[in-house]
């Protein structure tokens, strides 16, 4: 299934990126040029989404928009809505204006040459191509261990994500249109894309240091993001409460037997048996009840997300 003659849009969320923007635009323009020259795409453009920056980011974007019409498009959001929402805004805008999009951060940490490989995958039939960063030899054992545990934990909690993949990926038009039809508000893009299905592929690249400026994702934001990922993706934590409640009740039964035995052989002071039995039983019952309520809330949560029940990939 050859799909050449297609339009590519590179979507770049930018928040206070005046330091990296000139280099970013230059390098992306060069890649687009290269893709066009080699005939892998018919035409390419980049969409810079200014996520309510407080510096000169928007001035730069509008200048580029005038200087390089057709190559650079700009979108200014009215206020800062965060990386995931800014990226969503760009994807929604691009969904019916091109045949595929590539999302990438403005800071040039991801190897832009991987975009060429992504387009190759697209041309041979892929709908979603993940940019996956290679494990660095320089990474310490600790770094690798924590990262790996993080992905395993999220997966264990029921949110499927591609190991070592951030938000650098290609999405074809049909996948993108299905994607932006998900009406949920709590975005965890890398998990949501995974649920799309279609033909998915990966390309591998080395991740670099930030080109300039500093990370807009301090540790606090990162932990919050991880927690968002789990809670906006799975009811795993609710199941844990139910299981916990059941275990608690099971232990309660053992405690009852033990307490009664102690009571019968007379090893107790008055009041102890009834007190301990009540504590364990009531505790277990409450935990289980909370878990059951949680299960219903989980169902409601799924309903309000109104995700499509299915997506059709092909018809014959
Ligand atoms: N970003 C954004 N809005 C924000 C924070 C970040 O659009 O509120 C953009 C930022 O400009 C960059 C991308 O999201 O293009 C990733 O941010 P950053 O590189 O700071 O994160 P890190 O790579 O350190 O995780
Ligand atoms: Mg970065």
How does this model look, in words?
By secondary structure, the chain is α/β, with parallel strands linked by helices. Helices cover 49% and strands 14% of the residues. The protein has helices at residues 21-37, 57-67, 83-94, 114-123, 141-156, 173-180, 189-194, 219-231, 236-264, 272-305; strands at residues 7-14, 43-50, 72-76, 100-103, 128-133, 165-172, 200-205. The protein has a 7-stranded mixed sheet with strand order 3-2-1-4-6-5-7, with helices on both faces. Helix 9 (236-264) runs antiparallel to helix 10. The longest helix has 34 residues, at 272-305. The chain is elongated, with a radius of gyration of 26 Å. The mean pLDDT is 86. Bound molecules: uridine-5'-diphosphate and magnesium ion (MG). Uridine-5'-diphosphate binds at residues 13-15, 17, 51, 80, 82-83, 86, 105-107, 109, 215-217. Uridine-5'-diphosphate (UDP) binds next to strand 1 and helix 3.
Summary tags:
binds uridine-5'-diphosphate, 49% helix, elongated, seven-stranded mixed beta sheet, binds magnesium ion, 10 helices, 316 residues, 7 strands
Ions, cofactors, ligands: which are bound?
uridine-5'-diphosphate, magnesium ion
Order of strands across the main sheet:
3-2-1-4-6-5-7
Derived from helix and strand composition plus strand pairing, the structural class reads: alpha/beta
Helix content: 40-55%
Largest sheet: 7 strands, mixed
Name the helix and strand elements from N-terminus to C-terminus, one letter apiece: EHEHEHEHEHEHHEHHH
**What is the average per-residue confidence, as pLDDT, rounded to a whole number?**
86
Any idea what the radius of gyration is? 26 Å
Strand content: 5-15%
Count the DSSP helices.
10
Silhouette: elongated
The first-to-last residue Cα distance is: 15 Å
Uncertain segments of ≥5 residues (pLDDT<50)? none
Strand tally? 7
């Amino acid at each position: 299934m050859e799909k050449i003659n297609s339009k590519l849009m590179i979507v770049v969320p930018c928040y206070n990126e005046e330091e990296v923007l000139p280099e970013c635009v230059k390098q992306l323009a060069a890649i687009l040029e290269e893709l066009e020259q080699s005939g892998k795409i018919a035409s390419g453009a980049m969409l810079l989404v200014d996520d309510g920056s407080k510096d000169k980011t928007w001035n730069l974007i509008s200048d580029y928009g005038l200087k390089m019409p057709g190559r650079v498009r700009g979108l200014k959001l009215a206020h800062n809505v965060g990386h995931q929402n800014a990226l969503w805004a760009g994807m929604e805008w691009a969904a019916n204006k091109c045949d595929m999009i590539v999302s990438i951060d403005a800071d040039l940490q991801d190897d832009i040459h991987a975009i060429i490989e992504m387009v190759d995958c697209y041309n041979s039939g892929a709908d979603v191509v993940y940019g996956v960063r290679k494990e660095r030899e320089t990474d310490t054992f600790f770094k690798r261990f924590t990262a790996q545990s993080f992905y395993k934990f999220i997966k264990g909690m029921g949110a499927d994500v591609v190991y070592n993949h951030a938000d650098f990926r290609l999405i074809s038009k049909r996948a993108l249109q299905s994607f932006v039809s998900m009406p949920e508000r709590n975005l965890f893009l890398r998990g949501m894309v995974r649920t799309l299905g279609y033909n998915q592929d990966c390309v591998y690249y080395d991740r670099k240091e930030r080109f300039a400026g500093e990370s807009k994702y301090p540790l606090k934001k990162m932990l919050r993001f991880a927690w968002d990922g789990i809670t906006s993706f799975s009811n795993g934590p609710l199941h844990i409460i139910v299981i916990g409640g059941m275990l608690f009740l099971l232990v309660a039964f053992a405690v009852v037997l033990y307490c009664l035995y102690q009571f019968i052989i007379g090893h107790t002071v008055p009041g102890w048996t009834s007190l301990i039995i009540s504590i364990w039983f009531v505790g277990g019952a409450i935990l289980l009840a909370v878990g059951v309520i949680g299960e219903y809330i989980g169902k409601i949560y799924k309903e309000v997300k109104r995700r499509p029940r299915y997506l059709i990939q092909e018809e014959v």
